[in-house]
């Protein structure tokens, strides 16, 4: 006989409902929080972090083992299906091994940016410091500033990761050369000079990754990525698109200009990521080019992971038509050495490529080993991230007073004074009591960031910045940057007549230059030129013209117009742009920025943008590109920039000749072999010289500030061979430094010179050679000749 229990079914139902509600809402008094560890991914939290108990006993979680051993151990534990699902930027969780999901794609070009799925501003951190766009920061020519900006961004990136709002792998910096002034993404770069781009890459990467902060344990704060490898600098021009463009590049241009920033980014900067680009290079898609990708590992010692640009694997089949099928494209990139795909092609077609025998599982294991090695260096498999090197960083470490001050300083140091007739600037607050501010971007702080911008901390528009100093009135003049109508001219003219001084803000915005958008003209958009001319004619005094934007603008009309007394280029100055501009206009900061690009005239717009050649070709009317080779007229030259002070220079100590020893061949104590160029100039192959360090010397320079203001001043030392050599640069920047000079005082500056590096050129075969004979050092109109002898 079955015993019957006296159940009260109504009570049971009520109890079950109550328990379910407790589970859903989890009152803290009944379900205390035992761990505050953040998710390793802002949108996926199962498990909350890798190597959490009970999965912490796996060998790949053992921090006492070498990185390589741990990575290989993890690879060995994965099924093929799991391996394939880790080859995308949105890497899947592996719950059975305690691996959390991970989003590889986060951006940090000039501050933590909202581009890509890895970053979210919807958590406790609602904003991050927005520094000036890279081109303007570069104009400071201050290496320590570049490092500091990278370091601040790295701290904020790690803090956002700890709060569950970003990844740790940031796809910056963009170190492509700003080859053509119409390129929409030139604003993201450090300009047209390969040495400057290299130096910026090194400082930014070292600052961002924070390897020096970890001590002797190894590891990084975050990961930086050198992009876009290589010869990528066209978006959408004519019939050409970045997804299908075939960049035809000579060996000479490749070794002389396009590759040095990537080599430095890896060799000196120690970057842990390399991104291959959309374009083909001499017929082969970058991500499928075995020689290109393996050179980074073989010759430069790259030990990180290689990612595609987003959908750069898909375009190999869909746009380039290089591969006959999607699985062929996947096989091409994996065999070439790419490790991860931003996109879905590897998720969808790797299995098919394996089944067809185009790739082997060992190829996938290699890719995963590279990926895991970087994640291990970041501490992602070390257990609770709150107990790691940077586990205490959080929301209080973002938008700090120090970082906001750094953003102001970066904008101040980068802004370039292009014109200052009769010392119109700085304005004197004792005599100027009212200011008219005109321009569609003048009262819009959202226009100050440029592309790859996140949510700024406390953005200040140009109007707001100036309004803090003086009574100011505002008129847009145009409905927007395109300035298609003159309807607002009358109001602008009216307020300019009533003010003691007038500022017109003109230039570009992301409707003119952006990712996917190249310019077709170098002139100001729409009726902006007409607006400037109308206001300058109506104003009683010469006006101040402020130019916003990344790419060069042909403002020849303003350069020669006496009613336009001063011109400032402010790039995209970031969240603190309004304050920095106001401080310069009212003399609280002495401008010292220099242009990191050549400003070409509008006639350059007729030069085909798809022509990658840097050197001029008179036979076809081709003028060349960048200050190193361009032979045409300029509006403003590379390195141009004025200051409120009068600075003079003098060489104090510099040798007249340098002797390369005849017994310094790398092959042993034998004589170096000299060769002749087609011009009949003797030279030595640099790679045959074993004593380059012995040839180094220092140049001592005196810098005198004759002005009544202290100045933060950029010294730029150029050089060239005194004898014309076919294909050699017209001149090239050897070194630069930024120094503080006190009013009416001189300082002495030492600049190190490495003849093997600074006096060498690249020949037609892509080989670095050192011409014998005279070389010139050039400094602000001064020249000194040095003879290289054997």
Automatic annotation (TrEMBL):
Gene Ontology cellular-component terms for this entry are: extracellular region
Name of protein: Fibronectin type III-like domain-containing protein
Q: Which GO terms describe its biological process?
A: arabinan catabolic process; xylan catabolic process
SMART domains reported for this sequence: Fn3_like (SM01217)
UniProt-recorded Gene Ontology molecular function terms: alpha-L-arabinofuranosidase activity; xylan 1,4-beta-xylosidase activity
> Which InterPro entries did the record assign?
BXL, Fn3-like, GH, Glyco_hydro_3_C, Glyco_hydro_3_C_sf, Glyco_hydro_3_N, Glyco_hydro_3_N_sf, Ig-like_fold
- What keywords were assigned to this record? Glycoprotein, Glycosidase, Hydrolase, Membrane, Secreted, Signal, Transmembrane, Transmembrane helix
Chief location: secreted
Q: Name one Pfam family in it.
A: Glyco_hydro_3_C
Per UniProt, subcellular location reads as: Secreted
